[in-house]
Amino acid sequence: MINYFGIDILQFPFTLLIFINFIFGIYNSSNLFLKRINKDNTIEIRIFFLFITLGLFISLINILLFFDYLLTKNIIFVFFFIFLFINFLSFQNKKLKKNSFKTKKIKKFSILFVILFCYFLMSSLPLSDADSLSYHSSYGAYIIKYGSLNWLKSADLIHPDFLVSGFTEIFNFIGLILFSENFGSYLNFVSLIIICVFFNNKFKLKKEKNFILLCVVSSPILLPMIISQKIFILPSFILSLIFFYIYESKKIQFMNELIILACLMLILSFKVSFLYPVS
User: Fold this and answer.
1) Whole-number Å distance between alpha carbons of 136 and 172
2) What is the pLDDT of residues 136-190, one digit of tens each?
3) Rounded to the nearest 10 degrees, how much is the dihedral formed by the CA atoms of 40, 28, 212, 224?
4) CB atoms within 10 A of CB 263
5) pTM for this prediction
6) Which of 12, 86, 97, 120 has minimal Cβ neighbours within 10 Å of its Cβ?
């Protein structure tokens, strides 16, 4: 373990295993809920509902923090073991599928895999950027250190950006409770995987698909986003995906309209600057 702001934090690969259990728990939970309330199984709706499930869990933790810190901490641990149980059941129920990737496809995507692997390594690095150290992660660290949100009343501790803190800081707080400092950067990396999966399923032409994927992952603007604990890639992609889904759909079902509205509200919860494009 290492010490961060007086908090014990696990190191790689334990932080990765903790995040994998958490994010797959969210993913499997979203699939269970989606099967019961919506028959639309398009990839856009599945991504929207995954985002909503994640947002609802963060909302729950955010609300509980205003009442009792210890209760919130225990709820996070309870959900962690619930996710572990759900993931185990999901793994047991799924049959092993044959690998559909041929050697030729692997060779064609080798550049993409190398780039993604580099991003993965960067997302596993310790905190180093100023924004993460100053408030993206320190917000949750102060909550753990003082055992409540009362520290916000102390003027000498307040960073100006704490006043506009959102779901990014709460999500990193969840990671710190689970002894991981890389929850935000791991989610940014997973967001890239989600983007690649979407384009891989949506576009059929190989040349078109390969070109788009390489353009996305090779963009230099992703470098600081992957390292940072600031969650920006996923809300940005969800917002773009909403516009794409509305443009492509001839008719949107009422349930899907509610899902889109829920996504828009959650996007604002991650970053106030999304207010202009959402409105």
Assistant:
1) 7
2) 777 888 888 888 777 777 655 566 666 667 888 899 999 989 988 888 899 999 9
3) 140
4) 22
5) 0.87
6) 97
